[in-house]
Structure formats: C-alpha cells, structure tokens
Design brief:
Lysidine-tRNA-synth_C; elongated; 5-stranded antiparallel β-sheet; Rossmann fold; Chorismate Mutase Domain, subunit A; 6-stranded mixed β-sheet; 3 domains; alpha+beta; 39% helix; 13 helices
C-alpha cells in the first residue's frame, strides 16, 4: 500500500505549512474519513500540529443527525475538536450550488486567523470538476480546476489528497479499518456531479485507464497559463486598481482589446472575492457600463452585488435598500440604530453645542453642531433636493453640485445621515456642515 502518511508529511514540507493550524472539512464519508485518519496519525509524529474539524449539517438527508453523531464519535476517538454547523440552503440556487455555498460560508465563519482549511478532494474529484467546468463553458481559470494550494472566497485551502485516486483512498481506509458513512444522494443522478461519476467517467476509465491523470495534466496546463497571464497583466491591473476603496479606474480602458479588458475585469472581481461572471455578463459590463457615455450612471447586477460606475471608476457595492423616505427622530444620550446596516448614531447635548457620533463598520465620524432653536425638532433623514450654503460668504448651492464637489457617488448620497433642525439641513454626516445664515 502507498505510504500516504509519509507523502502527507512531505507535502506539508513542500508547501511550507508544516507549522500551520488546520481546519479539516469532515463529512464522515470515505474521503474525509481517510483525511481525518491521516492527520490524526501525523499529529502523533508532530505533536505541535494544531487540528480542528468541522462537519456541515445540511439537513437534506433523514440520516443527517446520525451522520453528525458518527463524526462526533470519530473525532472523540482521535481527540480532535469538532464543530457541527447546521446550515439552511438558499432557494435561489440549485441544490448542489446552494449546499456548496452553505458549506464554504460555514467554513469561513469558523476559520481562525492563520488557519488553513483542508479538504479531501482527490484525483477523481479533479476529473469531475474539470468536466463540469467544460460543461459550463469556463475559461482557463475554471479549467484549471483544483490545485493543492489555493484560495476560494478568501479562504486558504489545502488539498493534500489531490494526486491520489478514490481506489487508493479506499485501499487505505480498508487497511486501517476505518468506519465511514455512505450518503444515499451520491446515487442520485439528477445531480450533475453524480451523473458524471456514475455514468460518464467509468466507461472513459475503462477505455483509457489513465484518463484521470490526463485530465489532471490538462487542468495543470490551464492553471500555469492563467498564472502566466496574471503575471503579464498584473502591472497593468495595478495601474487601474485602487486598494484603499477596491475600485477600478477605467480611464483609457476602452483602448485595450476586448480580451484584455475582460481579463482585467476578472482580476478585479477576483480581488473583491466575487464569483466569476459568465461571458454574457462580462460583455454586458463592457458594453453597458464601461462603454456608456460620460455623465451616465450605468450599473450591472452580479449575484447579490451591484457594479456601478462614477467618474471613470467602477465600484462594487451591495444591493442597497431604498431608505430615502425614512425619518428618524433624535433622542439625546441614546444609541440610535440606522437602517440597512449603516451603523449607529449618538447625540450628546452640551451647554453650547451638540456632538454627533456616527459609528459604522468603516470607522467613526464625529461632528460638532450648533444648538437648535427651542422650537426646532431634530431629525435624521436620507434625502434632500434643495440648496445648501457651505460658507457664510458664499451663495446657496444646489445639493447635487455639493455632492459632486465632494465626489460622493449618487448611490451613497441617500445613505448619508442628514441632520435637520425642523426643515433646515444642518449637516451631512461625514461630508459637510452647513453654514448659518
């Protein structure tokens, strides 16, 4: 039998992660059971190895609770801490995609800083992944399939079994006397991966016994070509990318070839941890957003995010709720929650002035404001279409020009808390304080 343990140790050394902490993705099936056993045995040789495991409970099978109990027993046997995370699947995706997204969201939630997620993907999985990418019409990044070390959704991933077949893992598991569960859904050929696994790949392997190795080589060639493209275009990308706000400057962008534009856009979306768009979506982004006339405010929705353009920059934002009509009455010395994840406000009443503190995820904004007249109520609003005076010696200016002066994108203007004394705009928090009469 192949010495998996020695090879695992060598792989850790080659990847320079022998001192890392690991979170093992443990479903309880054959593959992840072999993975758990190997790392438990390795920990006996390397006591400094830090291991945890996570089991994602999808609730799709009537046996799901039994599987979770099985995983608990195995981890207790190996003295490896186990997290059992129950998830609910989104109705917006197919069940395969929804389950995968839920798993990785759970992994990301539990992954500690400097910890690496370890999965039990093997050679047969690689073949399935490559064929699924071909079915989707993926480019070379998608056709690169899986690598031993990679990052997905800002999660560092290690796949130490990727070079070994399922038969080799089965041989190891049987020799070691491992116990594992069988997921009955693996026989359901309505799912694309199962269809490939159960109906397409077996006759291919019978005809060409080395087909899995061949497909892996093709995936590796695609990965190397993608890496080369990144290396060649990264200097160009860095000329356009602004790391402080993660925007993309598209000045001069249309001078590039269509292929170059598409690749730079993919780099930007990858930098923002967004799933790769389809060819159709990329074409829409180039034609309808980047190539739109100056002065326009085009946008394109990708999953739950919106790509917006303003002053020759592309921004990636959530799909914000419309809060423009909301009005909030101010209460002093109490935390005031703002809508749509905008944070909280706190108003402090002083003898000669008012202090306003806006606590949001990106930091804290603080303003000192004059006292209102006794008959004036104080409100927070999110919309104003009149004029404002920025200095005593200047004329009133239309609010639209004020927003433009401060280079505040249109979608942010209705997300800035506006402080009103009665019907008078006093302050746009984080932007300006209006001058008195």
């Amino acid at each position: 039998m192949f010495d998996f343990l020695a090879q695992l140790h060598r792989t850790l050394l080659q990847q320079q992660i022998s001192q890392a902490s690991f979170l093992l993705a443990y479903s309880g099936g054959l593959d992840s059971s072999a993975l758990l056993s190997l790392f438990a045995r390795l920990k006996q040789q390397l006591p400094q190895l830090k291991l945890r495991a996570i089991h994602v409970h999808h609730g799709l099978s009537p046996h799901a609770d039994h599987w979770a109990q099985h995983c608990r027993r195995q981890c207790q046997r190996y003295d490896i801490p186990l997290i059992v995370e129950k998830v609910r699947l989104s109705n917006q995706k197919g069940i395969e995609d929804a389950a995968r997204s839920a798993r990785y969201y759970a992994f990301k939630q539990h992954l500690k800083p400097h910890e690496i997620l370890v999965t039990a993907h093997h050679l047969n999985d690689q073949s399935e992944t490559l064929l699924l990418a071909l079915k989707r019409g993926s480019g070379i990044k998608g056709l690169a399939a899986m690598q031993v070390r990679s990052e997905l959704w800002q999660i560092p991933i290690f796949r130490p079994l990727l070079d070994y077949s399922r038969d080799q893992l089965l041989d190891y598991a049987q020799t070691e006397g491992l116990s594992w569960i069988e997921d009955e859904s693996n026989q359901d050929n309505r799912y694309d991966r199962n269809f490939l696994r159960n109906h397409i790949l077996p006759p291919l392997r019978e005809r060409w016994p080395q087909i899995d190795r061949t497909l892996q080589r093709s995936a590796q060639h695609c990965f190397e070509q993608y890496q080369l493209l990144q290396e060649l275009l990264l200097p160009v990308f860095e000329q356009h990318y602004c790391a402080t706000d993660r925007t993309l400057n598209i000045s001069g962008f249309t001078k590039y070839s269509r292929h170059k534009q598409a690749f730079l856009l993919r780099l930007w979306l990858e930098k923002n941890a967004l799933a790769m768009p389809s060819q159709r979506q990329l074409s829409q982004l180039i034609e309808q957003v980047i190539s739109a006339a100056q002065g326009k405010q085009p946008q394109l929705r990708l999953e739950n995010s919106i790509i917006r353009r303003y002053q020759q920059r592309l921004y990636l934002t959530p799909n914000y709720a419309d809060i423009s009509r909301q009005i909030i009455k101010v209460v002093f010395e109490q935390e005031i929650p703002l809508p749509d994840n905008l944070g909280n406000l706190f108003f402090q009443l002083k003898t000669t002035h008012i202090v306003v503190i806006w606590q949001k995820t990106s930091g804290t904004v603080k303003h000192t404001l004059p006292l209102p007249n006794r008959d004036q109520s104080i409100q927070i609003r999110f919309h104003y279409s009149g004029k404002v005076r920025l200095a005593r010696n200047r004329a009133n200016t239309d609010i639209k020009k004020v927003w433009q002066h401060f280079a505040i994108p249109p979608w942010q203007r209705s997300r800035i808390p506006l402080v009103f004394y009665a019907e008078n705009l006093i302050c746009a928090l984080g932007a300006f304080v209006a001058a008195g009469k």
